[in-house]
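Lecture 7 notes: from sequence to structure.
We start with the chain below.
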Amino acid sequence: MPSEKKGWCGLIPTFLKQYGKKYLLPGILILSCFFYFYFSQNQSDTPQTDIFETIPEKTKTEEPSNTEQQESQNIIADTSIIVDVKGAVKNPGVYSLSADSRVIDAILLAGGYSKNADSVSINHAQRLQDEMVIYVPKIGEEPSEVQAIASVQQSTSIPSTQSGSVSQTGSQSDKVNLNTADEAALMTLNGVGPSKAKAILSYRDESGPFKTIEDLKNVTGIGDKTFENLRDFITVQ
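Predicted structure tokens for the same chain:
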């Protein structure tokens, strides 16, 4: 066995000595080509997906659905109110404001006071309510004139309570006379809109003048709660 290993080992130097110069260069070229194509093939077989695994997919901007747009509009509608600004302001009209707005915000939105405005008794800090009428009286305007314009019940003032369009207290002359008031004057009462004002006028035409303020409860749409809110601001002179 040792002699065989020695024999094989002895053939290698003999082979290189006899044929080394003839086959050495071609052998090197063949081996070089082999390794070149071998490694090139391995690189081409490597999956390319790993290269892009760390690159996040471009996020698409999603447009809001119709439902989301509708919900957004509803939220806006729920947080806004509409008020009617009249009288001695530069730009009288109907304005939309946020639900937490104050009287001063509505007046400023209407351009501010005109030169002949009487703003002394106006409560600028009062919180606004939807469908509220804000009337700014002119200097020297009489209480009766303010009532006729369907603004407020209190002389030369705008709404000054948290719950309505009139003040909590008023003199007898400031109250709305159920037997003489027209639709516009009736609508200055807190909680009385066009339909209730027309119902009051219809009742008066059909049944005659109101004898007591309690007769107002006989009008369609006027319940006990509404009457209690109106009691201090109506009369039947």
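Points to note: Confidence is low (pLDDT under 50) at residues 147-171. The chain has seven helices and five strands.
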